[in-house]
Design goal:
Layout lengths: L4 E4 L2 H5 L7 E2 H4 L5 E5 L6 E5 L2 E5 L5 E3 L5 E2 L1 E5 L15 H9 L24
Length: 125
Amino acid sequence: MNSRIFQHNTFTTLSIGFYKGTITLKEALTHGKVGIGTLDTANGEVTIIDGIAYHGDSENQVRLVEENETMPYVAMVEHQPIVKFTDNSVSNSEDFLSALTKRFPTANTAYTIVMTGQFKEVTVS
């Protein structure tokens, strides 16, 4: 399977204080529909699923990201599922990770994970 990761900037640039957004969400979405990143000033994290970007900030608030907002860092992929499974017995993150990693073809590869489900609560931290 051919797949690629688009990465705009690196974690190193963030760690040295480069927080100014240099790519818009609209431009990032031309490289994939699933991704992670942060917004201008690095306040919180951005999660992108099915082309919709959600920003979770330092106050644990979540909102939709506008396509003209800029990011200093973003990594995008065009998600292509190679494994699909349903497991209704998973009740915590440790069980989920165990159930998931058993299904990876190899441990030495980067994977994107898209998970759907019904949750009593979700904590952004």
